[in-house]
C-alpha cells in the first residue's frame, strides 16, 4: 500500500505507518510511529506537524517529515 492516503497523524495510527523527521540544520533524523506522533503533536496534518516540530539536537525548526509506507 502506498503512503498517499496518509495525510494526518491519525492516519499513521490507522494504517500502522511511521514518519521520519529530518532536521535541515544538523542532519539529525529520527523515526516515530503513529502513536508516538499523536502523543507528541496530537491529531494534525503534516504541514502543521512540520511547523511545530523542533529538533532535539540543535533546536532548529523547519523539520522535514517523510511518511514511511506501512510494511
Ligand atoms: Zn537539528
List the helices and strands and how they pair.
Blueprint: H1 9-15, E1 18-22, E2 29-33, H2 34-41, H3 46-52, E3 64-68
Antiparallel strand pairs: 1-2, 1-3
Helix pairs in contact: 1-2
The structure holds zinc ion.
- Secondary-structure-derived class: alpha+beta
Summed up, the domain count is 1
Weakly predicted, low-confidence segments: none
Tally of DSSP β-strands: 3
Distance between the termini: 8 Å
The order of strands across the largest sheet is 2-1-3
Give the cofactors and ligands: zinc ion
Shape, please? globular
Discrete helix count: 3
How much helix is in the residues?
25-40%
Taking Cα atoms only, what radius of gyration do you get, to the nearest Å?
11 Å
Mind summarizing the main beta sheet?
Answer: 3 strands, antiparallel
**What share of the residues does DSSP label as strand, in percent?**
15-25%
Overall mean pLDDT stands at 93
Helix and strand sequence: HEEHHE
Keywords:
71 residues, alpha+beta, three-stranded antiparallel β-sheet, 3 helices, 21% strand, binds zinc ion
Q: How would you describe this structure to a colleague?
A:
With 71 residues, this protein is α+β, with helices and mostly antiparallel strands. The chain has one domain. Helices cover 31% and strands 21% of the residues. The chain has three helices and three strands, in the order αββααβ. The chain has helices at 9-15, 34-41, 46-52; strands spanning 18-22, 29-33, 64-68. Strands 2-1-3 form a three-stranded antiparallel beta sheet. The longest helix is centred in the middle third of the chain and has 8 residues, at 34-41. The model has no long low-confidence stretch (mean pLDDT 93). The structure holds zinc ion (ZN). Residues 23, 25-26, 28, 55, 57-58, 60 line the site of zinc ion.
Amino acid at each position: 500500500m502506498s503512503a498517499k492516503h496518509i495525510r494526518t497523524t491519525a492516519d499513521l495510527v490507522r494504517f500502522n505507518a511511521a514518519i521520519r523527521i529530518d532536521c535541515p540544520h544538523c542532519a539529525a533524523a529520527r523515526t516515530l510511529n503513529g502513536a508516538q506522533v499523536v502523543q507528541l503533536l496530537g491529531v494534525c496534518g503534516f504541514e502543521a506537524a512540520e511547523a511545530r516540530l523542533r529538533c532535539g539536537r540543535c533546536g532548529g525548526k523547519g523539520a522535514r517529515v517523510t511518511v514511511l509506507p506501512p510494511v
